Amino acid sequence: MKQELLIEQRLLLTPQLLLNLKLLALPTIELQALIQKELETNPALQTTEEEPEEIDRRPWTADRQRLTDNGERRTDNEEYTIADLIPEDSAITPGEAEASEFDPIETYGTAPVSLASVILPQLKSELTAQEIEVAEYIIENLDEDGFLAIDEEEILQVFKISKTQLKQILQTIQHIEPGGIATKNPQEALLVQLQILGYDEKSLEYRIVNHYYQPMCKRQYSIIAKGLNVTEKNIRDAITNIAQLEPKPARRFTQTNPVYVTPDFTVQWQEDKLTAVLNDDLLPQLRLSRRYREVLLNPKSFTKEEVSFARAKLNSALMLIKGIESRKRTLKRVMDYILSEQKEFFARGMQFLKPTTIQAAGRALGIHSSTISRAIQGKYVETPFGIFPLRFFFVLGTGNIARHSLKDKIRQIIENEDKKTPYSDDEISELLTKQGIKISRRTVAKYREEMKIPNCTERRSA
């Protein structure tokens, strides 16, 4: 298995691997924003559309005249800094480049999408019609950040359901896209998102958010490190992972900043073969600056400071280019898996959606399940039947199967049974368990009744 995918081996998380995982979690439109920011801040990174630079073989030394910010030429008695190495068309200094933060754009694309229109299609395969009504009520009562704005007691009174039922409905909503929706606060939203990404309760990230949320927000790393008996470096590394999450799940869906969906994939037929095209034409083709490569090729012609600066910028640019290629490979593998598992769905429609899990995808691809979670996070695919989140194609957890798919399986078992000795609900439950689908006799009976299929006694007499 490739090292870039072994995220369960936490000690192997190199800077390149950390960047790969960060890029993998970004939708195409947000990756475009990150690349643009890097192009603005890293002079060693260029697009292939830019004209190749002329190699200036003269030494970049302090006695060489350069333009100051106001256009005047510097004289050789003026003080020079490493900022002089930045091309004149760049508007950022090295210090700013190191400190700059990525701020993904909030609105882009062809059509605005409401929060409800993203959530409800994902729930239809997980909840009953009655539970959907409850879910709609919950969605209508979310605040602008995506948190539940009413007491759970109100929901119980309105719909006359049990606390257990409400808990199950809320958990289902919270674990779909966008992760952490309908939680009570940012801390709970982050915990849900960590679970979605495969972090268990023993992971450092989960323990920090769960037990040291306020110190984390205040950046009190020493307090957290002492409390969890780990080093401050461990804490900083874990918080770097936490910082990639979204503490306000509905941030992009507010009226002031409506979200626009640009599909990351388009499914289409090519010569009677189903293919998925990665919509990365929004991303510029990147390359390393010839000017900065020349510094490393001829280090004796430049000062140590100049060589060090050029090496750092080139390394940063190369890591980004490699990370983007790694992201592309992983996304393509995951999407190809979805195509192979859901061929009937893409060809014939919703009723042919098959149940599959993130864990099953990970085993099939030799990729850790948390990497699969990152790959599908916030990604969308355009199909002949509409635009769907990639998470839509995976059921929640290892033992849960989409409701409509379970009904199909139960129906198929009954249709193929010996009419003289039809299966009881217990026997159907056992057959499904042998297929790796855990389902109780009561649930089988419930689904059978919803499909208006008689029990085994009535089927035998019929």
Automatic annotation (TrEMBL):
**A Gene Ontology biological process annotation?**
DNA-templated transcription initiation
The coiled-coil segments of this chain are none
What spans are recorded as compositionally biased (Basic and acidic residues)? 55-76
GO MF entries: DNA binding; DNA-binding transcription activator activity; nucleotidyltransferase activity; sigma factor activity
Write out the GO cellular component annotations.
DNA-directed RNA polymerase complex
Region (Disordered): which ranges? Answer: 43-76
Question: InterPro entries, from UniProt?
Answer: RNA_pol_sigma_54, RNA_pol_sigma_54_core-bd, RNA_pol_sigma_54_DNA-bd, RpoN_core-bd_sf
Residue ranges constituting the RNA polymerase sigma factor 54 core-binding domain according to the UniProt record: 106-292
**What Pfam families does its record include?**
Sigma54_AID, Sigma54_CBD, Sigma54_DBD
Which keywords does UniProt give here? DNA-binding, DNA-directed RNA polymerase, Nucleotidyltransferase, Sigma factor, Transcription, Transcription regulation, Transferase
Q: Which residues form the RNA polymerase sigma factor 54 DNA-binding domain?
A: 309-460
Which family is it part of?
A: Belongs to the sigma-54 factor family.
NCBIfam families (UniProt xref): rpoN_sigma
Name of the molecule in the record = RNA polymerase sigma-54 factor
